[in-house]
Amino acid sequence: MKTLFRTLLGLAAVLPVLSSCQGLFSEGQGIIRISFQQGRLTPTRASESVPEPDDFLLTVTGAGGDIIYEGRFGDSPEELTVSPGNYTISAVSEEFDGPEYDKAVFGDSRVVAVSSGETVSVQLVCRQTNCGLRLLVDDSFISLFPDSDLFIEGPGGTLRQDYGETRTAFFRPGTVSVSVGESGMKQPLFSRTLEEQQILSVNISASVGPESGSISLQVDTARIRFSENYLYGNDDASSIESAMSVMQARERGGEKDVWVCGYIVGVAVSTGKISFDPPFEKDTNIALGLRSGTDSKDYCITVELKSGAIRDGLNLMSNPELLGRQIYIKGDLVSAYYGIPGLKNVSEYQFK
Fold first, then answer.
1. Are residues 238 and 347 located together in one domain of the fold?
2. Domain limits at 34?
3. For the residues of 248-267, what is the DSSP string, one character each?
């Protein structure tokens, strides 16, 4: 009896502590939802790789520098539960210290404030974060400096370039200088200050005047701005290049003839219910998820597949290999289809 009494006293002392600790973890917290504004990257050359959103490196840090998440975007949870405060959300296609040839890097960084009980949605718009310089050397210059090389110096280091090199040298934003030299001797040619998203092409030639050889530089001032080619979306989703994400589509019911980009993750089987695992027994619809691994209806839209070529080409009952594929689909957004925000009257689709 005494033992039971002591046990009850012990529980009475512990329960308030447990209750207090439970409140620390379940109350007074907020939620961060992170997505990419969807769109398409058009490479400037066939040699450039196109980064996939799932492969971006995502880092979420608190104001004190503590890391909330670090890893692939595709492996991150749809929601991060955090304490109230400021958070930095950063994503990069790959790490870059530079300089390096043909290494365009894309990314975005946002700072958000999260209040108690608040859900904050963050949409990353990834653009090129480094700059590039491409040198094309004329035969007249090679004749004047036959045994020399070009040296491109910028933030992070120097690249030695022979005359046959036509690739773009990428650097961190800043001043980039070019010189010609041999045997340890260098003659400066020019310097340019380049910002993010800028790629500058320079044609280098030489002419011999009455007194001495003079060097002529032809600068291509039409800089290639990747922000025009690589933009994960905007408010106008009437073109495939500005397709909206699944989370945007969920909030924009009623818009017509718009493009949505997402991943085929399952099939709606009844009101408010989606099957994410094969085999699939319906061919009249598919569910698009925010990510290839999405398994919650809260991050999906349902897509009506009318009979015909579109149903034949997209239904998972006949095409189970499409599960997890990223796709662009054009149609009319509705507030509910199978009890979930949806897309009807599909007119076009294209796999990424």
1. yes
2. 28-128
3. HHHT-TT--SEEEEEEEEEE
Classify 298 as helix, strand or coil. Answer: helix
Instruction: Say whether the peptide bond before residue 188 is cis (omega within 30 degrees of 0).
Output: no
Total count of domains within the chain = 3
Residues 6+ apart with CB under 8 A from 224: 44, 198, 199
Q: What is the chain's percent helix, strand, coil content, to nearest 5?
A: 15, 45, 35
Residue type present at position 104: A
Q: Is the bond preceding 173 in cis, omega lying within 30 degrees of 0?
A: no
Q: What does the chain come to in residues?
A: 352
Q: What is the pLDDT of residues 270-305, one digit of tens each?
A: 999 999 999 999 999 999 998 898 999 999 999 999
- Confidence band (pLDDT; 50, 70, 90) for 306? very high
Q: Quickly count: other Cβ atoms within 10 Å of residue 291's Cβ.
A: 23
User: How far is the C-alpha of 278 from the C-alpha of 209, rounded, in Å?
Assistant: 76
Residues 342, 239 within the same domain = yes
Q: Identify which of 123, 221, 231, 226 has the alpha carbon closest to the alpha carbon of residue 173.
A: 226
CATH for 81: 2.60.40
pTM (global) more than 0.85: no
Residue 299 in any domain: the answer is yes
70 plus 138 within the same structural domain: no
